[in-house]
Amino acid sequence: MKSVLGRLLISASLLFLAACSNSIRSNVATFHEITVPGGERVMLTPMLAENADSIEFRQYANILAGHLQSYGYKEPGDKDPQLIAGFDITINDGREKLENRIVPQSNLYWRRGFWYYGHYWAPVYPPFHDPFFNDNRLIARTVYTATLRLELRTPDGELIFEGRAEMETRRKDLPKIVPYLAAALFESFPGESGTTRRVVIERKKPTGE
Question: Do the beta carbons of residue 132 and residue 104 sit within 8 Å?
């Protein structure tokens, strides 16, 4: 009995570890005419006018501003901006995606038996069947695609940078997704122009772990 329960616990642990991921992957595409990021003064603004007064987009702007500052860009302050950074963040309605998952066999039965004056429960396995043999099964899940777009323009409207970061997620939760999209977009900024690359960002651990 102890060995059976042990094997059950091991199988459950393996499934749990397989379901967890310590990193987030994004596809990043950049097109630009930037050689080396300079110390220009940058003003951040949503691309869509309806998001200009959004507290949510103000929070996203602060995240992007932090990354821009890490590359030497500055806030305009009381001076006129030298660059305008327009950004937009969207998430679609989702689609069904088939995933190949390892699933343990569940055809495990129990029977009641008697031994002297007591009784016990013991597992019964169907003939020629190993209940601990893992199956590869296709499982349908809903996944969403979140997209971050960023443009840098001069005050007269000349476009000098455009970038896009996309990632798939199982939860439609932009506030938790945007920091990873921003980190992926600014990985090795401005990046090689005219290419799409795969960027892996380590998942942040919850506070207290």
Answer: yes
Asked whether the CA dihedral 164, 168, 173, 176 is positive or negative, the reply is: negative
d(CA 186, CA 168): 18
Q: Give this prediction's pTM.
A: 0.69
Taking each continuous run of H as one helix and of E as one strand, the counts in the chain are 3, 9
Q: Do 41 and 72 touch, CB atoms closer than 8 A?
A: no
* CB 190, CB 36: distance < 8 Å: no
Tokens 């980190």 appear where? Answer: 183
pLDDT by residue (tens digit) across 2-21? 444 344 333 443 333 333 45
Determine contact, residues 181/198, Cβ cutoff 8 Å: no
Confidence of residue 206 (pLDDT cuts 50, 70, 90): low
β-bridge pairing 109-115 and 23-32:
unpaired
Residue carrying structure tokens 């942040």: 204
Q: Which domains does the chain have, with CATH numbers?
A: 23-105+135-202 (3.30.160.670)
